């Protein structure tokens, strides 16, 4: 099994087949519009703009599980516009618990967090995936997108 085996929906409910990402470096982030880390959208967009033509794809998965900081699609869309986000923002999901999206269940099994925990601790946890669909690394919310650039460039 790999990341390419999953299907999801975009924010506007269109099908999104992860197999279209084959041969790309992918950064998957659980995002929220009303979080102290929301400013990371700016850094994520900068990375995407700089490296998308070389094969970087960033996928934002809105999640409302942490202090209800991602309330609705209108808020997500407004936040996306405010930060000039052009990378794909997918449908709102859960990342923990029995309702966790299958993509996140897979990601968490591939790369555990602090103290080998699978649980996502907060918004803006990041997973870096290589061109072959292998989950390379998991980054905590406190890691700024700019700090990932070297690792992304190495994979590109």
From TrEMBL:
* Entry keyword annotation includes DNA repair: no
Q: Does the keyword Oxidoreductase apply?
A: yes
InterPro entries assigned? Glutathione_peroxidase (IPR000889), GPX_AS (IPR029759), GPX_CS (IPR029760), Thioredoxin-like_sf (IPR036249), Thioredoxin_domain (IPR013766)
One GO term under biological process is: cellular response to oxidative stress
* CDD domains tied to this protein: GSH_Peroxidase
UniProt keyword annotations, A-Z: Oxidoreductase, Peroxidase
Protein's UniProt name: Glutathione peroxidase
What broad taxonomic lineage does this protein's source fall under?
A: Eukaryota, Metamonada, Diplomonadida, Hexamitidae, Hexamitinae
